[in-house]
Specification:
2 copies of one chain form a homodimer. With about 350 residues, the first copy, chain A, is α/β, with parallel strands linked by helices. Helix content of chain A is about 45%, strand content about 15%. Chain A folds into 3 domains: about 50 residues, 434 Repressor (Amino-terminal Domain); about 130 residues, Rossmann fold (3-Layer(aba) Sandwich); about 130 residues, Rossmann fold (3-Layer(aba) Sandwich). Chain A is built from 12 helices and 12 strands. In chain A, the strands form 2 sheets. In chain A, strands 2-1-3-4-5-11 form a 6-stranded parallel sheet, sandwiched between helices. Chain A binds a DNA duplex (16 and 16 nucleotides) through helix 2 and helix 4.
Chain lengths: ~350, ~350
DNA sequence: CTGAAAGCGCTAACAC
DNA sequence: GTGTTAGCGCTTTCAG
């Protein structure tokens, strides 16, 4: 007859109430710190609750109160090091406000995005943070319609339907171009990432504009998967075609690392023969040799900002429609200034 | 008067029922594909549901059915590349069975583990996958008591309280020792990782046993943080003390990479002067030079296995108490066989 | 200060 | 085939 683990049963308000000799209502009030009971009664109630190991049933509460205190987070791929930190940032804010997070991984598929959204709505989430990568604008807009509070990350839509937290990739692109030109490079290629990516499009436009402003243009540009393998393949083919290229701006750090491998295979020295610059500033960028220069965003901050914005919205406060974060140039070995 | 987005309202079974001119029950039966209505009625009901964009309220259903179809996943740190893949594996199975996952990040803190568990129980989760890293055995056991279905990952407890999915680290250690001795090394050191780690203890025991079986013993052994920095510091001090050492078995790939840096600083050539072997087979192991030989586990498989086990348990099936996965030796550059 | 009544949205069990 | 009754655990409203 051990003291522990004999409570297979789940106790309810009713149980606590009868044990304390009061009504459910009184227990409810006390346990939610809404007063409404004498000191003595409160004591008895709390003790009864403790003895029974009472745990309020969040579902029942939600059903009645019409607030689930659950927030959905949709990411394309949690294995991509970009997203765990966003999640952590979002979680840190959510937790402090008593919210619980459902994480939905969407494996880079637009269909799954729609499916997962339905599920979250059925689950009565109070809001959604949506890192939508694959869904087309029109479909996204339609999906957003039946939705209460949504914050989009890394993407925008009709501001009436959802606010957003984005990164100024065009600025990042300009910083990249500035940096490469400042260290004397002119023959710049673009490993552009997937053509369906919102961010990719912005980076391309940003690079083109920045180069134009200096009377330059990209030597070449190819799309690729946002992976190491994708970067390697793309860079290999580009470098084979244009041996004049002295700098590559890559979609992200993974593709930059792929490009690094491609350069090695061609016996090109990075940064002497070829400079590389990536985006995202993932940990890996500092762990390869040479280290990769990158345009970093504080991903944890993205998550925090998105969740703060969302909670304000849920709260019914008037909020800004969009937040734009600025990337910072992290100079590293792959673009070391060559001695002029 | 656009057709879209005018449905701020949430419709209920009642709404669908009255629109279709039947009772709630009939709607419920039809929408849950439990028959009980004529073809014609079914058609009317489905149409009404579609017109109203009816979405069943999962909370209400859970309250009634006493099954939330939600599963909690507790990880120490989702930013650690070890865990996202476990999550993905678990999700792939859960999704196929209609479960939704709450992810709780516990930032490597035992207190947070307990807190998060409470929250999940209040949320009425049907089960929990718990990658518990920090909580002490006694506390874990106590925490497990009020719990229905839990699968522990990378750790065990009282099998009455929770089943588990673990990795046979002792086997991994043996494979490491075998490999190093086969390529002719005898002076083996052990970079042992954190002393609070379940896996670290198993690896140490495994190495010692395997070496004993060959009439050998580790030259030295030091604990360290499970990070690159930790590995570097530990390896530097060990190599300074024993210049006879020709092979290091490291807690994980990160510490192995740290050791690699330490070796470089001492102008030792890897693998010629010193062989290195890590655990986990993270992506990084293939991205450094030389590439790191490692004992790999299929993390995605861990997640899948854990979720399968959990769902069976929830289902009331008799299940095995523990599943043990076997690491595989991934031979790479850091232990290249020297010409004999 | 405390409690009774009513109902959140859904579904099992039993009628008709 | 279809509807009625009852109730999951909680809280809002309003009386005592």
């Amino acid at each position: 007859m051990s003291e522990m683990a004999q409570d297979e049963t789940l106790f309810t308000l009713e149980d606590v109430a009868s044990r304390a000799g009061v009504s459910r209502m009184t227990v409810s009030r006390v346990l939610n710190n809404r007063g409404g009971a004498s000191e003595e009664t409160q004591r008895r109630i709390r003790q009864a609750a403790r003895e029974l190991n009472y745990r309020p049933n969040a579902m029942a509460r939600s059903l009645k109160s019409r607030r689930s205190s659950i927030i959905g987070v949709i990411v394309p791929d949690i294995s991509n090091p970009f997203f765990p930190e966003i999640f952590r940032g979002a979680e840190s804010v959510a937790q402090a406000s008593g919210y619980t997070l459902i994480l939905s991984n969407v494996v880079e598929s637009a269909d799954r995005e729609a499916e997962v959204l339905e599920k979250l709505l059925a689950q009565q989430v109070d809001g959604i943070i949506w890192c939508s990568a694959r869904m087309e604008d029109a479909a996204l807009k339609k999906a957003l319609a039946p939705t209460k509070s949504v914050v989009l990350v890394n993407r925008e839509s009709d501001p009436e339907l959802a606010s957003s937290v984005t990164v100024d990739y065009a600025l990042g692109a300009r910083l990249a171009v500035d940096h490469l030109t400042e260290i004397g490079l002119r023959q710049i290629g673009l490993i552009a990432g997937p053509d369906w990516s919102f961010g990719a499009v912005e980076r391309i436009r940003g690079v083109q504009k920045a180069m134009e402003a200096r009377g330059l243009a990209p030597v070449d540009m190819v799309n690729c998967d946002p992976t190491i393998q994708g970067g390697e393949t793309a860079a290999a083919s580009m470098l084979a075609k244009h041996d004049s290229i002295d700098g590559l701006i890559c979609y992200n750090d993974l593709t930059a690392i792929g490009a690094l491998q491609a350069a090695r295979n061609l016996e090109l020295d990075v940064p002497k023969d070829l400079a590389l610059i990536g985006f995202d500033d993932i940990d890996l960028a500092q762990l390869v040799t040479p280290t990769i220069t990158s345009l970093g965003v504080e991903r944890y901050e993205i998550g925090r900002a998105a969740m703060k914005l969302l909670l304000k919205q849920i709260d019914g406060q008037e909020t800004e429609q969009k937040i734009v974060l600025h990337p910072k140039l992290m100079m590293r070995g792959s673009t070391l200034k060559t001695v002029v």
